[in-house]
Amino acid sequence: MKVRYIIIGALLTACVLFAGFIVFFSVYVSTVQLDTITLPVDSPMNNADAYVVIMQPYVSLKDNPGKNGIPVGYVRKKEVYQVKGKEFASKDTGTELWVHIANGWLARSCVEFYSSKSKAVTASKEML
Questions:
Q1: Between 108 and which of 56, 87, 97, 122 could a Cys-Cys bridge form, CB atoms 3.0 to 4.6 Å apart?
Q2: Between 12 and 26, whose confidence is greater?
Q3: Residues 48-83: pLDDT tens digits?
């Protein structure tokens, strides 16, 4: 009979500890915000998309990301540019990534990303 009470007590203790862990974890996770995470400057995540090669024959640069941007210039296939920034913009079917280069923005679908200028230049030279 004593063994039964010991087993029941141990199970209750385990349940209470588990419930406490769940409560603590859920409170802790809800206070952590992903938008506050900053990557170090030399992080592979920051350097992975440092340069782009234009993949389409003729692409219009916009003053702002998204379909409402005003054309401010043009780029051509095989040209290499350093990425100044990236931003998601609304699209009819969801969102689309836009890339800031030189003097304007263009859709992600128009470019291929490279981690270094030398890789981008090599890829550009090998394009048809």
A1: 97
A2: 12
A3: 679 999 999 999 999 999 888 999 999 999 999 999
CA–CA dist 68, 50 (Å, integer): 26
Q: What is the pLDDT of residue 47?
A: 59
Whole-model pTM: value is 0.62
DSSP of the chain, one letter per residue? -HHHHHHHHHHHHHHHHHHHHHHHHHHHHHH--GGG----TT-HHHHTTSEEEE-SSEEEEESSSSTTPPEEEEEETT-EEEEEEEEEEEETTEEEEEEEETTEEEEGGGEEEESSHHHHHHHHHH--
Alpha-carbon span 6 to 1, nearest angstrom: 9
